Amino acid sequence: MSQRKLRVGMVGGGGPANFFGGPHRRGILMDNSAELTAGALRSNAADSIASAKELYIPRGYPDWQTMMKEETAKPESERIDYVTIVTPNDAHFGPADAASAAGIGVLCEKPLTTTLDEAKRLHATVASKNTPFVVAYTYTGFPMVMLAKELVKDNAIGEVRKVEAWYPQGWLATKLEADGQKQAAWRVDPTKAGASGCGGDIGTHAYEFVRFVAGRNATRVRGRLKTFVPGRALDDDFTVLAELDNGGIATICASQITIGAQNDNGFRISGTTGTLEWSITDHTILKHYAGGKPLQLYRQGAEYGYFPGSIKPYLRLPSGHPEGFHEALANLHRTLEWTIRGRRGENVPTPFPHPGIADGVAGMAFVEAAVASSNQDGAWVKVG
Amino acid sequence: MSQRKLRVGMVGGGGPANFFGGPHRRGILMDNSAELTAGALRSNAADSIASAKELYIPRGYPDWQTMMKEETAKPESERIDYVTIVTPNDAHFGPADAASAAGIGVLCEKPLTTTLDEAKRLHATVASKNTPFVVAYTYTGFPMVMLAKELVKDNAIGEVRKVEAWYPQGWLATKLEADGQKQAAWRVDPTKAGASGCGGDIGTHAYEFVRFVAGRNATRVRGRLKTFVPGRALDDDFTVLAELDNGGIATICASQITIGAQNDNGFRISGTTGTLEWSITDHTILKHYAGGKPLQLYRQGAEYGYFPGSIKPYLRLPSGHPEGFHEALANLHRTLEWTIRGRRGENVPTPFPHPGIADGVAGMAFVEAAVASSNQDGAWVKVG
Amino acid sequence: MSQRKLRVGMVGGGGPANFFGGPHRRGILMDNSAELTAGALRSNAADSIASAKELYIPRGYPDWQTMMKEETAKPESERIDYVTIVTPNDAHFGPADAASAAGIGVLCEKPLTTTLDEAKRLHATVASKNTPFVVAYTYTGFPMVMLAKELVKDNAIGEVRKVEAWYPQGWLATKLEADGQKQAAWRVDPTKAGASGCGGDIGTHAYEFVRFVAGRNATRVRGRLKTFVPGRALDDDFTVLAELDNGGIATICASQITIGAQNDNGFRISGTTGTLEWSITDHTILKHYAGGKPLQLYRQGAEYGYFPGSIKPYLRLPSGHPEGFHEALANLHRTLEWTIRGRRGENVPTPFPHPGIADGVAGMAFVEAAVASSNQDGAWVKVG
Amino acid sequence: MSQRKLRVGMVGGGGPANFFGGPHRRGILMDNSAELTAGALRSNAADSIASAKELYIPRGYPDWQTMMKEETAKPESERIDYVTIVTPNDAHFGPADAASAAGIGVLCEKPLTTTLDEAKRLHATVASKNTPFVVAYTYTGFPMVMLAKELVKDNAIGEVRKVEAWYPQGWLATKLEADGQKQAAWRVDPTKAGASGCGGDIGTHAYEFVRFVAGRNATRVRGRLKTFVPGRALDDDFTVLAELDNGGIATICASQITIGAQNDNGFRISGTTGTLEWSITDHTILKHYAGGKPLQLYRQGAEYGYFPGSIKPYLRLPSGHPEGFHEALANLHRTLEWTIRGRRGENVPTPFPHPGIADGVAGMAFVEAAVASSNQDGAWVKVG
Q1: Under an 8 A CB cutoff, do D305 and B295 touch?
Q2: ipTM here
């Protein structure tokens, strides 16, 4: 099929307490078309190099600056093809900007940065080099979410009236960070997470459904950020009402204190002629309501003819063999890979329009507007 | 068991286009403990009398005024024991106030009235006579909703942090009223429905979950009422963010334009130690999440020992024999019946604390505040 | 609509431990078109009369023989129009045969009798008088089951290949009868229940799906009746493999020892071009699979245009207002009522072809063949 | 963690029409602890070598015989550590026996062989060399199935009474093999698939639930194999009733003609004190029913404390991040890997008791007994 495996570098993602490094490595390796070549996996230089060794990553670096310097110095035939950035939010901008400036592709975790200003500067760099760039709004990699996007585009529900996007979790309902849980600790620390905790971490995912699936943008928002757990510095509950650019409305509700909720994001999009509904809790199904007809359930499976050509290459298994989170992540890596390979003239399918740098910027604009509104007791604030 | 069947009068609920008369009659007759004795079933006198005859109601009246006058003139041994009011909203106050003043029990449809002022005046009448009064927040009659109330009271989820209450419908997504659909026509007419369409009709149901189940009140609200269908005089979409009297928050989201949604009300209540969730789409189940334990599903059935004594008398069937909407409605009639019988010294179970006149007033206060807020582009408005 | 309410007599169904009397009374009263006129509600004469009084049934009789005698002696203008028989199995034949012989309509609980021979004799009586007769295969009264029948008939799934019918319960997983639980006691007593416990009580319901919905008959069966609870005289687990009259096959699996199962009957019918699936655990939905198309979910609701004219008159509520077991039972009473009224020339809808005497006989033939097979260690036995 | 990645050889699994090669490769690569080193991927020598190259497998061989010969000739420091066999059934025995004889670990697809005799001979080879051997009963790799096994072992449901195991599919409801669909073609060809089509392909999976989860064996069976699609040489529908070694019973129902069913295997195991139920259609949940208590839903997620130490190392993601089929397959590879590493003294977790050679033999014994029974019109046949 292809000439060689792509070479991937990873920034962050090492260490025993790390969460997202493992899933990204699985996503990268899943289809046997890329390899883990380089890594600056931890904040401490020695740990970083040890971590690379332990993970069978041949080129371990003490930090991302060294990685970028040495990799860009290599001939193209040896250099990494793209980097995956899985650090806490405050450490996205540096490596992302450096890689973008060097024309090395980037798959960056969300939220894109910690401030909208940073995000815009990164956008400028990416634009100037036309760097292949994917933002890890992972849920856009689920095939039924991709199908929803295509159906909206194909007018299956008419004009969008209302988007309800949700993302409840329960894991921060108690003061987990006080026990030294690392995943909790940085997420509730404004210096690492940015101006919003819950909103930045998961509210941005929910908002991306508005953009990616419904194809709409928020023009102004009212935000209600709330901190339920005493002594926490950032919001653990995030409720936003938004007006959309076509006159519709959206509710974006995320929470980290909904005990029992796991990671239950989803959306319902109501249009003038129908409704689409998806939830990760039943993620192989997409519901399509249209007037008085029976409810239609699209089900995931490589054999179903109703998947358009834009999605078919992203399906790996026949129906009933559940794919999941790793495959969704792998799909984002696939899009970046095919973008890179395509530009080189390799024969690959057309990449799906997964979220790129503009979506990352839009997510930051949304969060900043929500924070600003909440700080003004919920006044309307325009989305920058 | 009891001395005689209770005698029930009905106001409204006749005619071929009527919707709620039938369900209430089924609720009244369900347990063979009450009979339909009197009726002023339609707005036209002749139709009203014909309708009573057709429905085997012996004492047909031309209008509710005549019914009240003649019934109160009868000796107590013949008089109706209570009236059920199933007219459009603007015709609740008259008969409810007259019956209350006469000390005749009332089961009144919601919203209680068309204005908060009317509601308060009715409250005064009811209070002065201590009239047995139930407001038809029908979903509080579902046994699993009753169980949720008891669990919250028994501290099963700790202190309430957040209430999410929802009620999407899709039947008004097109301009149904233009086709002469009577149920649609009066609901979108401010002179009949009051200041809010969607909010008054179904938003009040959703709000009652906050009060009835979570045991909390909204102190101030931000409301966003929207009319999606062009040319409609009232809101067909109703989104409210509320602050609660204990510092928690609530979202109350109702809609009539969510195509495919049927009548899908429900709630999720998150507390400091657990979460309860219920939806009418799976109404025989109540979900209880508590920390890291397996999710517990309470299931409906007369044989389950976990129903407290306050609910057991409201269960009719063993598990797996689904009860539904009619039984929920019958439960509200049962509460009114047992209230009446209990006061007479008959041996009946203690009635469950189903919504009464105060809940009807609170519903109106909530809707008026939401309307006022929406009229001010979403400013915070105190709930009166 | 109609001239007068129908007058109904009830045999059995009284007493504090009785289960099915209440649901039938609710079914009879539900639509305000029939009244409870007569009753021989308990096996003891004094109790029987007291029970009628307590239940507001004006004509209480000491036993069904007296009821039949006195009712048939009345002029047609006063006589009961039909009887509902809700006694244990061994007490079906007597009153059913007597009423049938008198030309009084019958709605009889299942299994029809305790032996196939009795069933055939009853059939002869019914046939000779052309008596309106409905057998309470209650689940055929659920509208989505009725819709399934119509879809099969309309060739929506092609030729039937396989029917899977199931009915697990868990309530007899322990020796409940030892504690004096009356519902358990008679069901495990061969003198009252007949030759099969689980098979007669619920296996017959499952088998009726083969006949009613799939439109097929079993020609021969292999039965495996098993008694798991020590010391029980009848089977509490019933597994049957059947060959069908068109060359297809069926599995009919019922059990009373599946702990946690409530009353979970349902079916899946696979044909050459599609599959239909229904379960009481989600009874307002009918699933229709057809090749590579999205799964279609028919949902219950009086407003949906896909219900044929044969079913529409049996729907009471708009979608999302769940009907349930009582309504299903009421639908069987409705069918009997409309049969009776129709013959009298009253203007009523065409009754749906709900199970009649022939289905009752077929159920007994099926159970007897299954028992015979099980007694021969599972040899094939023809269905009589 | 470990010294080096394990080296894996693959037999079969190449070519554009192949199905299971890809999933196994993803399972092998998933955790970055093994690499694809060798392959004899297709039946034609040139294709085989080309396929290895295309898949980035460094040591491509023309056939498995050559692969075995050359690999065993290598020093242990270069040799493959185990082979994965993903050929059609008739090509399992050869490479499995050769690898076992050479002491090279084996992960073999099921059914183990095409005859019980072959299976027993392979068992002897494996036993003589004590070869690490895993049979790809993939569904035993789902964590909730593993949890079910542990709960049964820990007496959570008492003594097992009844096992219901199911596996409906719909993809062979039409004569797909006539269109040259390769996956269909070999599965309905007795020379490649063995004596049973549906039973061997998926009935064996369902039967393994009886052994793996319930911990029981079938002692005798009645089988009903049926071919619904005209002109097909093997069964496409497989129904078995089994007696279990503790006096319980089991039903094992598999089908390939249930239109709309995808790959819907699952089980319900009823014991004297409770019931466990799992279905791949909701595979992150395990239902536990116990008497009158609320239904408990165990949910998958690495953070839940109720997973025993034997399962925890097999969980990759926190709750709500769905794992699926690839992870289940990866878990079987993980068990083989940890078995191999453990024997070498590497520090790895204790492998879970996933199915080995004895389970493969038992599966063949079950299928042969079912076929023999069906050939005798369903007579009881002992399981060898």
Answers
A1: no
A2: 0.96
Separation between Cα atoms, residue B191 and residue A169, nearest integer Å: 43
pLDDT in tens, chain C (384 residues): 447 999 999 999 998 888 899 999 999 999 999 999 999 999 999 999 999 999 999 999 999 999 999 999 999 999 999 999 999 999 999 999 999 999 999 999 999 999 999 999 999 999 999 999 999 999 999 999 999 999 999 999 999 999 999 999 999 999 999 988 888 999 999 999 999 999 999 999 999 999 999 999 999 999 999 999 999 999 999 999 999 999 999 999 999 999 999 999 999 999 999 999 999 999 999 999 998 899 999 999 999 999 999 999 999 999 999 999 999 999 999 999 999 999 999 999 999 999 999 999 999 999 999 999 999 999 999 998
C-alpha angle D271-D277-D278 in degrees, rounded to nearest 5: 145
Would the pTM of this model clear 0.80, i.e. be above it? yes
Extract long-range pairs of D53-60: CB within 8 Å, 24+ residues apart: D54/A1, D55/A32, D55/D14, D55/D25, D56/A5, D56/A32, D57/D10, D59/D9
Q: So what's the pLDDT on residue D305?
A: 94
Give which of A128, A59, A131, A130 is closest to A95, Cα–Cα: A131
Give residue for tokens 């199905």: D19
Q: Cβ contact (<8 Å) for D294 and B292? A: no
Question: What is the per-residue pLDDT across D335-351, written as a single tens digit (0 to 9) for each?
Answer: 999 999 999 999 999 99
DSSP string, D177-208: GGGT-HHHHHHT-HHHH-S-SHIIIIIHHHHH
Q: Cβ of C292 and A298 within 8 Å?
A: no
A128 Cβ neighbours under 8 A, 6+ residues apart: none
- A-interface mutation test, from D35, D167, D174, D319, most A Cβ less than 10 A away: D319
Q: Residue C99: helix, strand or coil by DSSP?
A: helix
C-alpha span between D164 and C261 (Å, rounded): 13
CA distance B275 to B271: 6
Asked if residues C289 and D259 have their Cβ atoms less than 8 Å apart, the reply is yes
In which residue are the tokens 């046994």 written? Answer: B143
* Residue pLDDT, tens place only, D176-199: 999 888 889 999 999 999 999 999
What are the strands, taking DSSP E only, across chain B? 6-11, 34-40, 59-60, 82-85, 105-108, 133-135, 160-168, 218-226, 237-244, 249-255, 266-271, 275-279, 285-289, 295-299, 381-382
Burial track B101-120 (b if 16+ CB lie within 10 A, e otherwise): bbebbbbbbbbbbbbbebbe
Work out whether strand C59-60 and strand C82-85 pair parallel, antiparallel, or are unpaired: unpaired
Distance from CA of D105 to the nearest CA of C (A): 40
Chain C interface residues (partner A, CB cutoff 8 A): 288, 292-299, 303-306
Q: How far is the alpha carbon of C374 from chain D, nearest alpha carbon, in Å?
A: 13
Cβ-based contacts of B244 with chain A (< 8 Å): none
Per the CB < 8 A criterion, the answer to whether B193 and B367 are in contact is no
Across the interface, of B292, B297, B303, the residue whose CB is closest to D294 is: B297
Residue D75 DSSP label: -
CA dist D268 and C252 (Å) reads: 16
- Which of C5, C22, C55 shows the shortest C-beta gap to B56? C5
User: Do C25 and C55 contact (CB within 8 A), yes or no?
Assistant: yes
Give every CB contact of residue B182 below 8 A, 6+ residues apart in sequence.
Answer: B17, B18
Q: Which residue of C has its CA nearest to B323?
A: C324
d(CA A122, CA C23): 69
Q: Which chains touch C (3 or more CB pairs under 8 A)?
A: A, B, D
Are D257 and C289 inside 8 Å of each other by CB? no
Closest Cα to residue C42, out of C79, C109, C94, C87?
C87
What is the rounded CA–CA span in Å between residue A38 and residue A16? 19
Identity of the residue in B301, B316, B326 whose CB atom sits nearest the CB atom of C22: B316
A163 within 8 A of A137, measured Cβ to Cβ: no
